[in-house]
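Hypothesis: this fold can be encoded by more than one sequence.
Test: take the C-alpha coordinates below, design a sequence, compare later.
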Protein backbone atom coordinates (compact mmCIF):
# COMPACT_ATOMS: atom_id res chain seq x y z
CA UNK A 1 0.00 0.00 0.00
CA UNK A 2 2.82 2.45 0.81
CA UNK A 3 4.24 1.94 -2.67
CA UNK A 4 0.81 2.70 -4.15
CA UNK A 5 0.52 5.90 -2.08
CA UNK A 6 3.93 6.99 -3.29
CA UNK A 7 2.84 6.39 -6.88
CA UNK A 8 -0.35 8.42 -6.36
CA UNK A 9 1.65 11.27 -4.82
CA UNK A 10 4.01 11.22 -7.80
CA UNK A 11 1.06 11.45 -10.20
CA UNK A 12 -0.27 14.47 -8.32
CA UNK A 13 3.17 16.09 -8.41
CA UNK A 14 3.36 15.48 -12.16
CA UNK A 15 -0.16 16.80 -12.80
CA UNK A 16 0.41 19.98 -10.78
CA UNK A 17 3.84 20.70 -12.22
CA UNK A 18 2.66 20.17 -15.80
CA UNK A 19 0.02 22.89 -15.52
CA UNK A 20 0.61 25.69 -18.07
CA UNK A 21 1.85 29.05 -16.80
CA UNK A 22 -1.43 30.74 -17.71
CA UNK A 23 -3.45 28.24 -15.65
CA UNK A 24 -5.34 30.06 -12.88
CA UNK A 25 -4.50 27.84 -9.90
CA UNK A 26 -6.55 29.85 -7.44
CA UNK A 27 -9.78 30.08 -9.47
CA UNK A 28 -12.71 28.91 -7.33
CA UNK A 29 -14.70 26.22 -9.15
CA UNK A 30 -17.28 25.28 -6.50
CA UNK A 31 -17.66 24.61 -2.78
CA UNK A 32 -16.05 21.37 -1.65
CA UNK A 33 -17.60 18.72 0.58
CA UNK A 34 -16.02 20.31 3.66
CA UNK A 35 -17.66 23.66 2.94
CA UNK A 36 -14.51 25.43 1.74
CA UNK A 37 -13.89 26.63 -1.84
CA UNK A 38 -12.41 24.13 -4.29
CA UNK A 39 -9.80 25.83 -6.44
CA UNK A 40 -8.61 24.77 -9.88
CA UNK A 41 -5.38 23.34 -8.48
CA UNK A 42 -7.34 21.36 -5.85
CA UNK A 43 -9.48 19.84 -8.60
CA UNK A 44 -6.43 18.99 -10.72
CA UNK A 45 -4.82 17.15 -7.81
CA UNK A 46 -7.99 15.33 -6.74
CA UNK A 47 -8.71 14.16 -10.29
CA UNK A 48 -5.20 12.70 -10.45
CA UNK A 49 -5.81 10.86 -7.16
CA UNK A 50 -9.19 9.43 -8.13
CA UNK A 51 -7.87 8.28 -11.50
CA UNK A 52 -4.86 6.65 -9.84
CA UNK A 53 -7.04 4.77 -7.35
CA UNK A 54 -8.95 3.28 -10.28
CA UNK A 55 -5.81 2.56 -12.32
CA UNK A 56 -4.10 0.83 -9.39
CA UNK A 57 -7.34 -0.99 -8.40
CA UNK A 58 -6.92 -0.01 -4.74
CA UNK A 59 -9.39 -1.66 -2.37
CA UNK A 60 -10.21 1.45 -0.35
CA UNK A 61 -12.98 3.93 0.29
CA UNK A 62 -12.01 7.58 -0.19
CA UNK A 63 -12.39 10.60 2.08
CA UNK A 64 -11.29 13.79 0.34
CA UNK A 65 -11.47 17.47 1.22
CA UNK A 66 -13.16 18.19 -2.10
CA UNK A 67 -15.26 15.13 -3.01
CA UNK A 68 -16.21 14.09 0.52
CA UNK A 69 -16.70 10.43 1.46
CA UNK A 70 -16.84 7.92 -1.38
CA UNK A 71 -18.03 4.56 -0.06
CA UNK A 72 -16.61 1.85 -2.31
CA UNK A 73 -17.51 -1.00 0.04
CA UNK A 74 -14.11 -1.67 1.60
CA UNK A 75 -12.87 -1.81 5.21
CA UNK A 76 -10.06 0.74 4.81
CA UNK A 77 -10.25 4.36 3.71
CA UNK A 78 -7.83 6.55 1.80
CA UNK A 79 -7.85 9.92 3.57
CA UNK A 80 -6.81 12.66 1.18
CA UNK A 81 -5.98 16.33 1.10
CA UNK A 82 -5.25 16.82 -2.61
CA UNK A 83 -3.45 20.12 -1.96
CA UNK A 84 -2.67 21.16 1.60
CA UNK A 85 -1.56 24.79 1.47
CA UNK A 86 -3.67 25.91 -1.48
CA UNK A 87 -3.08 29.60 -0.71
CA UNK A 88 0.68 29.00 -0.78
CA UNK A 89 0.29 27.32 -4.16
CA UNK A 90 -1.57 30.30 -5.61
CA UNK A 91 0.97 32.74 -4.15
CA UNK A 92 3.96 30.77 -5.43
CA UNK A 93 5.28 29.83 -1.97
CA UNK A 94 7.05 26.44 -1.91
CA UNK A 95 5.05 24.98 0.97
CA UNK A 96 2.17 22.90 -0.37
CA UNK A 97 1.71 19.17 -0.39
CA UNK A 98 -0.45 16.23 -1.27
CA UNK A 99 -1.37 14.29 1.88
CA UNK A 100 -2.39 10.61 1.64
CA UNK A 101 -3.13 8.17 4.46
CA UNK A 102 -4.80 4.75 4.69
CA UNK A 103 -6.50 3.26 7.73
CA UNK A 104 -9.74 2.47 9.51
CA UNK A 105 -12.27 4.73 11.23
CA UNK A 106 -10.10 7.45 12.76
CA UNK A 107 -6.71 9.11 13.10
CA UNK A 108 -5.48 6.38 15.47
CA UNK A 109 -6.40 3.77 12.87
CA UNK A 110 -4.04 5.15 10.19
CA UNK A 111 -1.41 2.56 9.18
CA UNK A 112 0.34 4.06 6.12
CA UNK A 113 1.06 7.66 5.21
CA UNK A 114 2.71 9.77 2.51
CA UNK A 115 3.17 13.55 2.39
CA UNK A 116 4.85 14.90 -0.75
CA UNK A 117 5.99 18.50 -1.16
CA UNK A 118 4.61 19.43 -4.59
CA UNK A 119 7.41 21.94 -5.19
CA UNK A 120 10.59 20.30 -3.92
CA UNK A 121 9.47 16.70 -4.50
CA UNK A 122 10.50 15.71 -0.96
CA UNK A 123 8.52 12.69 0.27
CA UNK A 124 7.76 11.89 3.90
CA UNK A 125 6.50 8.34 4.54
CA UNK A 126 5.49 6.24 7.53
CA UNK A 127 4.11 2.81 8.25
CA UNK A 128 2.70 2.00 11.68
CA UNK A 129 5.35 0.31 13.80
CA UNK A 130 8.06 0.82 11.18
CA UNK A 131 9.21 4.41 11.75
CA UNK A 132 9.21 7.45 9.48
CA UNK A 133 11.35 8.44 6.52
CA UNK A 134 12.22 11.46 4.40
CA UNK A 135 13.26 10.51 0.87
CA UNK A 136 13.69 6.95 2.17
CA UNK A 137 16.06 7.95 5.00
CA UNK A 138 14.93 7.45 8.64
CA UNK A 139 13.96 10.59 10.53
CA UNK A 140 13.34 11.33 14.20
CA UNK A 141 12.25 14.27 16.32
CA UNK A 142 15.06 16.32 17.83
CA UNK A 143 15.97 16.65 21.47
CA UNK A 144 13.97 19.46 23.07
CA UNK A 145 15.83 22.74 23.46
CA UNK A 146 14.67 24.00 26.86
CA UNK A 147 16.29 27.40 26.39
CA UNK A 148 14.92 28.36 22.98
CA UNK A 149 12.15 25.99 21.87
CA UNK A 150 11.43 26.46 18.17
CA UNK A 151 7.80 26.67 17.15
CA UNK A 152 5.57 26.54 14.09
CA UNK A 153 2.26 28.26 14.77
CA UNK A 154 -1.02 29.14 13.09
CA UNK A 155 -1.30 32.94 12.90
CA UNK A 156 -4.28 33.47 10.56
CA UNK A 157 -7.31 35.75 10.90
CA UNK A 158 -8.83 33.71 13.71
CA UNK A 159 -5.86 33.38 16.03
CA UNK A 160 -6.78 34.21 19.68
CA UNK A 161 -4.73 36.60 21.78
CA UNK A 162 -3.93 33.68 24.05
CA UNK A 163 -1.78 32.22 21.29
CA UNK A 164 0.51 35.24 21.21
CA UNK A 165 0.80 35.21 24.99
CA UNK A 166 2.15 31.66 24.78
CA UNK A 167 4.35 31.73 21.70
CA UNK A 168 6.44 34.65 22.96
CA UNK A 169 8.03 32.05 25.25
CA UNK A 170 9.49 30.35 22.17
CA UNK A 171 12.04 31.30 19.53
CA UNK A 172 12.22 31.11 16.60
CA UNK A 173 8.56 31.18 15.56
CA UNK A 174 7.36 30.55 12.00
CA UNK A 175 4.02 30.09 10.24
CA UNK A 176 4.15 28.29 6.89
CA UNK A 177 0.44 27.88 6.12
CA UNK A 178 0.59 24.14 5.49
CA UNK A 179 -0.15 21.92 8.50
CA UNK A 180 1.03 18.68 6.89
CA UNK A 181 4.51 19.92 6.05
CA UNK A 182 4.76 21.81 9.34
CA UNK A 183 4.09 18.62 11.32
CA UNK A 184 6.57 16.74 9.15
CA UNK A 185 9.18 19.39 9.98
CA UNK A 186 8.65 18.60 13.67
CA UNK A 187 9.04 14.91 12.83
CA UNK A 188 12.28 15.64 11.00
CA UNK A 189 13.77 17.63 13.87
CA UNK A 190 13.62 21.13 12.43
CA UNK A 191 11.18 22.39 15.07
CA UNK A 192 10.07 21.39 18.56
CA UNK A 193 6.33 21.81 18.01
CA UNK A 194 3.48 22.94 15.81
CA UNK A 195 0.74 24.82 17.67
CA UNK A 196 -2.69 25.26 16.06
CA UNK A 197 -5.36 27.23 17.91
CA UNK A 198 -8.22 29.36 16.59
CA UNK A 199 -11.17 31.24 18.08
CA UNK A 200 -13.57 29.85 15.45
CA UNK A 201 -14.41 26.15 15.40
CA UNK A 202 -14.84 25.99 11.62
CA UNK A 203 -11.28 27.23 11.12
CA UNK A 204 -9.72 24.41 13.11
CA UNK A 205 -7.97 21.47 11.47
CA UNK A 206 -9.76 18.55 9.78
CA UNK A 207 -8.72 14.92 9.71
CA UNK A 208 -7.86 15.14 5.99
CA UNK A 209 -5.27 17.83 6.78
CA UNK A 210 -3.27 15.78 9.26
CA UNK A 211 -4.13 12.09 8.80
CA UNK A 212 -0.79 11.40 7.11
CA UNK A 213 1.43 13.82 9.03
CA UNK A 214 0.11 12.64 12.41
CA UNK A 215 1.35 9.11 11.73
CA UNK A 216 4.65 10.44 10.37
CA UNK A 217 5.17 12.49 13.54
CA UNK A 218 4.19 9.66 15.88
CA UNK A 219 6.43 7.16 14.10
CA UNK A 220 9.29 9.69 14.37
CA UNK A 221 8.93 9.77 18.16
CA UNK A 222 6.58 12.73 18.59
CA UNK A 223 2.94 13.05 19.64
CA UNK A 224 -0.13 15.16 18.94
CA UNK A 225 -2.78 16.17 21.47
CA UNK A 226 -5.83 18.42 21.43
CA UNK A 227 -5.84 21.64 23.47
CA UNK A 228 -7.30 19.78 26.45
CA UNK A 229 -4.18 17.57 26.55
CA UNK A 230 -6.00 14.52 25.19
CA UNK A 231 -4.29 12.30 22.62
CA UNK A 232 -5.79 13.44 19.32
CA UNK A 233 -8.00 10.89 17.59
CA UNK A 234 -10.35 12.36 15.00
CA UNK A 235 -12.96 10.24 13.18
CA UNK A 236 -13.08 10.12 9.39
CA UNK A 237 -15.63 12.93 9.30
CA UNK A 238 -15.20 16.29 7.52
CA UNK A 239 -17.49 18.01 10.03
CA UNK A 240 -15.12 17.35 12.95
CA UNK A 241 -12.49 20.01 13.73
CA UNK A 242 -9.82 20.41 16.37
CA UNK A 243 -6.97 22.56 17.56
CA UNK A 244 -3.80 20.71 18.49
CA UNK A 245 -0.21 20.67 19.66
CA UNK A 246 2.16 18.43 17.72
CA UNK A 247 5.41 18.14 19.65
CA UNK A 248 8.67 16.31 20.21
CA UNK A 249 8.74 16.39 24.01
CA UNK A 250 6.26 16.67 26.89
CA UNK A 251 8.08 19.76 28.17
CA UNK A 252 7.22 21.89 25.14
CA UNK A 253 3.61 20.76 25.42
CA UNK A 254 3.54 21.94 29.02
CA UNK A 255 4.79 25.40 27.98
CA UNK A 256 1.98 25.76 25.43
CA UNK A 257 -0.78 24.38 27.64
Amino acid sequence: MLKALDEIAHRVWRAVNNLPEEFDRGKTLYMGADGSPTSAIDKTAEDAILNAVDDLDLKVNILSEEAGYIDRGYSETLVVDPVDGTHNATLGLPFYTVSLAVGKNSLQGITQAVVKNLVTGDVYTAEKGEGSRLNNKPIHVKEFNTTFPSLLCYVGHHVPQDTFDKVVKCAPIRSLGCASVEMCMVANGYFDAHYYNTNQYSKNIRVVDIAASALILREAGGEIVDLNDKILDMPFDLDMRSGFIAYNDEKVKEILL
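The CA atoms of residues 140 and 213 lie 13 Å apart. The first strand starts at residue 28 and ends at 31.
Hypothesis status: open.
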